[in-house]
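sanity check this:
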Amino acid sequence: LKHQERIRSGSDSSGSRELVQVMLRAACQRFPSRCQNPWQRSRQKASRPRLAGKGDGISQEVEYEGLWGAIVTFPRRQPFATNVIVATVKTSVADLIVQTAEGREKIDWQRNGAFTAFGFAYLGIIQWFIYVTLFTRLCPQAIRFANLPWAEKLKDRAGQIDLVKQTCLDNFVHYTFCYFPVFYVIKEGINTVTADKSASATSEDPLVSRALKKYWKNAVQDNLYMWSLWVPFDMIIYAVPIWMRLPLNHGISLAWTMILSALRGNEK
């Protein structure tokens, strides 16, 4: 009897072990990473390429390895920070190029500091809000269209409509009523700081009023120059992947800033 009980208990325990093994195998099939050896799991984690944060339609998930990979993929992983850096450096460099072309013996660092601040605050931060936040709300197909392959963009009618809409908003609203007024206010502020006290005392109008009077005097010519350059280029800028939008914009804006400085830089 004892021998039969041992056989019965042995068969019961073996059946239980088989049941546990079946359950473990099922769990491992569903959660394979949990069933690896801890040492093996940590080794695989260390050798796996790093993955950026979750994509949101603007920033993107990008695998990279090492410092060079982090640098190369930085614009796609961190487009806002890239925009601020590029805008600040670009505006400063554009002013330095123009000052050098003017034949100055010494760089006017006060003037350059004002342009650098304008690049950081307006072109870097405010334009991000305008182009990425505001425009994508007014044009809900913008991000989706920008991130499509080129072959699919040619078939996407709704995205093409938003492409034209963004180009019109940028050139006929943003530049005309935001960009130029801010530019003239900054420029008038620089002229006020650098002008003689006797000369600045002759005008009793507030700084903003003086700046806007000069803008409205030049508004037609300024906007025609602006539209002739930016309308065709905006059709490209708003069609590229959205992480590339502002870096490409700044590349063209470097040339535009030098044109604007040559056009209006000497005016007092």
Notes: The two ends are 115 Å apart (CA to CA).
